[in-house]
Amino acid sequence: MQPDDFLEPRQPAKSRICELECRYAALGNLPSPTSVASLRVRAVGEQRVQTLKLEGSVTAGLFARDEFECPVNGDRPDLDALLALVPKDSKAIHILSEPDLAERLEPLFLTRIDRCAATLQLPDGAEFELAMDDGAVEAAAGASAPIHGVELELKKGDPEQLYNLALALLHDIPLRIDHLSKADRGYGLLVQEQITAVRAEPLKLKRRDTVEEAFQAIARNCLAQVHGNERGVVLGHDPSSVHQMRVGLRRLRSALDLFSPVIPAPADFGNELRWIAGELGKARDWEVLAGTTLKKALASAASDADATAVHKAAQNIATEYRKAAVAAVNSVRYTRLIIQLTLWIDQKGWRTGMSKKSLKALEHRITSFASETLKRRHKKLLKRGHGLAELDDETRHRARIAAKKLRYATEFFSSLFDRREVKRYITALSDLQDDLGWRNDVVVASGLLRSLGESKPETAAGAGFARGYLASHAVADHDAMKALWKRFSRLAVPQH
Prior knowledge:
Strand content: 15-25%
Largest sheet: 7 strands, antiparallel
Oligomer: single chain
Structural class: alpha+beta
Distance between the termini: 47 Å
Helix content: 40-55%
Mean pLDDT: 88
CATH class of the largest domain: Mainly Alpha
């Protein structure tokens, strides 16, 4: 589908305007990019419009939030006019009703935008505004940040149509999703926000949920973790953002695999998720090696091992892979994947072409599906992990993958089972998985160090020492792994 397919034969309404937006906040109560509300006054020529935007959700770049707007005389907000618009049950009432709020409001930053806008209409009545913005946000202290972007606003119709329009534009224009609003950029000039890694939110399923409802909840939960770490990956404040985004992708891939017997996903999703996970994985592996593993491994190295050369070489490689990960997250390829995935999940794209029998299976209660899935995955782990401490690296790796899939499945379905049983089971499984993960990190680190020593001769001595250190610790872990496996293998799968 091309962008022109969204236009009616008649010429759409177009406009080119210059906008000034001033954001306000209560004096002494400086907001941050995660504030619950944003208040602005927009100037377009002689007209002034005030807008109150409440905190909402962001999914694949689609902002969904309550917004209240009305004309205002002058550049100062008129809170009484906003109060007349806001429903009595809205949390905005509590914000606008703060004592002396109007007197305490002060301008924070100014946004100057040269905007070219067009109204796009579909034959079925859906309507969008497409705006191209070029300008900057300016703070009182003199700091500024450029703004260059395309903004799509759904005026009338379904979110599905907005996603389809975005995909059509991607066909010809190299766009990427920007999770920062103009307000976010302005607040970022005032508040030195430290982006932290985002872990998965607790997932609460209901026993009356259908298989389809449970899948949507799980998939959205996984995507939320992925989205929540994108900014951290791009800005590079915390290496943990790479790890947590990668975990979100692994959880999503596990969910797709888990439900594949009843909800088959397009093969392209699996291929593309493996691609972005791989880009993040290379950055994560080298960052762990450079940031923590080498510090421990070379702490007692002799002077002739030249620990500095190994550290520097590993850090340089980690930096290059981090740049590649940032480029991947900022790419059109990733943008297209996330939009397509979100659209498929929200619009239940798996239903297309399904037989009546398959559609009926989607309506079954999730409890039976969850029980059978956990039993099957528990049995697979017991089979693959038999004699775990004695297994070779490759066979143990297969057991680790089985343990990881079982843990994700148990966490997805934990709210459906007895709380105490689930907690005991997940604790034992997590301890086992952590130990298997550490052993796998040793194998990965050893391979990276081998390649480093071969490609950069000056690091050979230090890399060899580090590999020996890691190998000795892996051998020492034998009895601990044996005990962890014995503890887990005695447990039964949780029951509801």
